[in-house]
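As practice, study what follows.
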Amino acid sequence: MAERKTTKKAAVKETEPKKETTTKRVCGRKAASTLVLSAENAGFKAGDVYQALAANGEALTVKEIAKQANITEEETLIGMGWLFKEGKIVSSDNKVTLA
């Protein structure tokens, strides 16, 4: 009988390229989140705006209110609309203060 030589092939391992994970940013901001419009949500945002104005004690811009209340500027505007309708806040020189 003839002997057979056995040869081992080196296992070729295919490597997948590494996938890069990126966070989508829009104009240097986080990706936009969904804003839920409801009477309940508007009321909560109004409370956030009111508390920020009450804590500060002086007139603030929309951007300053949003930063202090830790909500977006859009949510700030929703809350301000609620408070304007109720007569709780007044505006002068692009700043808002409690009435």
About this structure: Residues 19-25 have pLDDT under 50 and may be disordered.
